[in-house]
Write a structure and sequence with these properties.
By secondary structure, the protein is of the alpha/beta class. Helix content is about 35%, strand content about 15%. α2 links the parallel β1 and β2. The structure holds zinc ion (ZN).
């Protein structure tokens, strides 16, 4: 038995009218970074169709080293698919979306975080880094983190948004902009940053 049975039935319904999207550039020219929360699914909230936008999800929708790696690879892939013709800021926009009532907000509480670290074996620092207590503040910090990463292509732009669970509305906190300096090897060593 699997709890997937009712979902597989829904999939059969889906497949009846399905037509596959061709391999190509994301139609919306956007890559979404968002929380894994089941109340904040970007496909539903933003009305994304198949082929519109790659979506990267983790706890909080945080810009982690793994997320930066994925975006660096996506920029390479999109550049290849577009024949290397993209100008600065023109490959795609990365939209970082944090949300209100995020479950990671509990991790801002020291006692809760210590308990979570002991119970799961995860490093307390990693749990602290994923906390979203104030989504407007964390989304700004994560847009900066991505813009200052030496791995970010200068042909990519980054914006920040907050999804309000209570109203269903997404508001823009940080307008889209590209990294100012491009790749600077001297900037590659930052305190607390992995590479
Ligand atoms: Zn969340």
């Amino acid at each position: 038995m699997t709890r997937m049975i009712p979902l597989l039935e829904r999939n059969e319904q889906f497949a009846r009218t399905y037509s596959p999207a061709a391999l190509g550039l994301p139609a919306a020219q956007v890559v979404v970074v968002a929380c894994l929360d089941h109340r904040a699914d970007p496909a539903i909230v933003l009305g994304l169709q198949l082929g519109d936008a790659p979506v990267i999800r983790n706890a909080g929708g945080r810009v982690t080293p793994a997320v930066i790696d994925d975006i660096a690879f996506l920029a390479f892939l999109v550049e290849q698919l577009s024949g290397g013709q993209a100008a600065a800021g023109r490959l795609f926009e990365v939209a970082v979306i944090h949300h209100t009532q995020c479950g990671t907000g509990f991790l801002a509480d020291t006692a809760f975080r210590q308990h979570a670290a002991e119970a799961t074996g995860l490093p307390e620092a990693a749990l602290a880094a994923s906390a979203v207590a104030d989504p407007h503040a964390t989304v700004k910090a994560d847009v900066e983190r991505l813009l200052t990463s030496p791995l970010l292509s200068p042909k990519v732009s980054v914006s920040g948004h907050v999804y309000d669970i209570a109203t269903g509305l997404v508001t823009t906190t940080v307008d889209a902009r590209s990294p100012s300096g491009g790749h600077k090897p001297d900037d590659s060593i930052r305190p607390g940053y992995r590479r």
